[in-house]
Amino acid sequence: MKSVRAAMLMAAIFAVAFHHAPAMAQPTPEVEALAARIKADQYRTIINCEGCNLAGANFDGQFLRLAALQGADMRGASFRGADMTGVHFNRAKLDGASFAGANMAGAVLLGASLRGADLSDARLDAVRVHDADFTGANLQRANLRMLEYVHRLTFAGADARGAIFRHSYLARVNFTGTDLRGADFTRAKGLTDKQLSLACGDETTILPPDLTIPRCAN
Hints:
The chain has helices at residues 2-19, 29-41, 193-196. It is mostly helical. The model is unreliable at 1-9 and 11-23 (pLDDT under 50).
């Protein structure tokens, strides 16, 4: 009965997460013009575009190290393969954006919303994620080592198959409905059976000693 209830809960979480994931935005001419200016300046100076509207912009493969994008609206934007080391995304709206294969090591994501975002194969080691929302995000094979400042962090309904959480501090992180098959929690701290009981994994999920996780239904 418990397993049935857990499966129903996970299904509900996934449905809510992906129902609210926004469609990919089409950039306006103003957004495209601003994105072009940022690309032109990317090697000349550290980009500062706090609070900018860049919804739907394409920054695939661009160089945005240490960029100041606090409070920016970048919903549906694409940063596939971009170098975003140390970028500042505090309170940014990043729902539905794609960061597949991007390097975001050391990024600051305090209060950022990444609901339904694609972070597959992204480097997110040592990022600061206090109050960040990854509900329904694609975190497959993402590198999330050494996470810091995780208060009120949520991965509810996320697909974190093969994600790496080594050496991360994960106390009270929300893993409700998270698919953790093949995830690696080697030397992770603060994680509890209570958190894991709301997620699912399999025999390839690597957990700290004495912790267990329910098996995914499929």
